[in-house]
Design brief:
The chain has about 375 residues and is of the alpha/beta class. The longest helix has 28 residues. The protein has a seven-stranded parallel beta sheet with strand order 3-2-4-1-5-6-7, sandwiched between helices. The relative contact order is 0.09. The chain folds into two domains: about 220 residues, Rossmann fold, CATH 3.40.50.300; about 60 residues. It is globular, with a radius of gyration of 23 Å. Helix 2 packs across helix 3, helix 2 packs antiparallel against helix 7 and helix 13 packs antiparallel against helix 14. The structure holds guanosine-5'-triphosphate and magnesium ion (MG). The site of magnesium ion (MG) has 5 residues, from helix 4. Magnesium ion binds next to helix 4.
């Protein structure tokens, strides 16, 4: 842990960070316990970075842009970590993200750390590892953490759920066919970047205008915070750039800085982080419950036959689910909660324990 925190030994620190991330990617139970301990120890040193999510279709120029942006930020004195989430790797084990190969200059820079996506597990699992890797990077003093993801599947939702700002990269021709832009993803974007504007300036400008008006439409619905006249709230914007030539990187960073300042002042930054932490907890609870459920002896025994019955239409899915849930009776969980008190010792649970009257009714 000390090696992760010590910024004076660059090489040693980089190795320690890589080792820590490998540990938390491990599926072995003893490694998991070590990783949990490490994360708990690191937690007080985390949270001080700006977390930036970048998504877009394969080939839109994400890595090229991140390299240009990373070098720009390092020149300004920042330390930059880049993590990738590749939804294809969770299915095939292969990677469609070009990983390090397209960030050649950034990857050899002492003030940068680049980590490719874990190459196995479900998207939920990979997202969890990435969140944890982000904490390790923050403890190591990387003050800008960039999470790159390919714009396919559910990965955008996962990345926007773990970052302070979510950026969507588009190609200049995307504006010609707004159908191609998934509305749900567009609504997640805090900033849209039309890349490769050098290829066709006219098309890039058209795309910018079309996406801007589409985003205005989304913004009019629901949340009064999004009302365009509200000067304290951030309104998603669309800019053009050319990652290859490094054109527009400065403009991009100006937008990010403006976003960060506004969101900090109006409280949205802190609220987003709090919401993300709770969402993350619930997501892990649900995953844990599901895993326990699947491993329950009675459930395991009944599952294959019931699955066939549901497939063949002999038993309604809802009835099968109810039967399985009923079979999932607690096996070892019958002991009182206090028995676990030595495991859970967060400040708030301790406080509750102290506040609680030792006997008698609470009213
Ligand atoms: N003309 C032009 N080409 C660009 C620009 N940005 C990126 N490219 C090129 O587009 C190709 C894809 O760029 P990448 O940065 O690898 O794209 P990516 O979005 O990271 O791709 P994946 O990781 O595969 O999803 C490369 O050949 C880049 O050189 C740009 O601004 N202008
Ligand atoms: Mg890439």
């Amino acid at each position: 842990m000390d090696r992760i925190l010590d910024q004076s030994q660059a090489q040693q620190q980089r190795r320690a960070v890589a080792k820590a991330i490998t540990l938390l990617e491990s599926t072995r139970a003893d490694h998991r316990a070590q990783a949990d301990q490490l994360l708990t120890d690191l937690l007080p040193h985390t949270g001080n970075s700006f977390r930036l999510g970048i998504s877009g279709v394969p080939g839109v120029g994400k890595s090229t842009f991140i390299e240009a942006l990373g070098l720009f930020l390092i020149a300004q004195g920042h330390r930059v970590a880049v993590l990738t989430i590749d939804p294809s790797s969770t299915v095939s084990g292969g990677s469609i993200l070009g990983d390090k190969t397209r960030m050649e200059r950034l990857s050899v820079n002492e003030r940068a750390y680049i980590r490719p996506s874990p190459s196995s597990g479900t998207l939920g699992g990979v997202a969890e590892k990435t969140r944890e890797a982000m904490l390790v990077c923050e403890a190591a003093g990387y003050d800008i953490v960039i999470v790159e993801t390919v714009g396919v599947g559910q990965s955008e939702t996962a990345v926007s759920g773990m970052t302070d700002m979510f950026v969507l990269m588009q190609l200049p021709n995307a504006g010609d066919d707004l159908q191609a832009i998934k509305k749900g993803v567009m609504e997640l974007a805090d900033l849209v970047v039309v890349n490769k504007s050098d290829l066709d300036a006219g098309a890039a400008t058209r795309a910018q205008a079309q996406i801007t008006s589409a985003m205005r439409l989304f913004g009019q619905h629901g949340d009064p915070h999004h009302a365009l006249h509200n000067k304290d709230a951030w309104h998603p914007t669309v800019i053009q750039l050319s990652a290859l030539g490094g054109d527009g990187v400065e403009r991009f960073w100006k937008e990010v800085t403006h976003f960060r300042r506004l969101q900090t002042a109006n409280g949205a930054f802190a609220a987003r982080r709090k919401r993300q932490a709770l969402d993350w907890m619930w997501e892990r609870i649900e995953a844990g419950l599901k895993q326990d459920f699947r491993q329950h002896p009675a459930v395991k025994k009944m599952m294959p036959a019931l699955m066939r019955d549901v497939e063949e239409g002999r038993v309604p899915a809802s009835a099968a689910a109810r039967q399985l849930l009923a079979a999932n009776t607690p096996t070892v969980r019958a002991e009182p909660v206090e028995a676990h008190a030595n495991i859970v010792s967060s400040p708030s649970t301790l406080r509750q324990a102290q506040d609680r009257p030792s006997s008698g009714p609470t009213e």
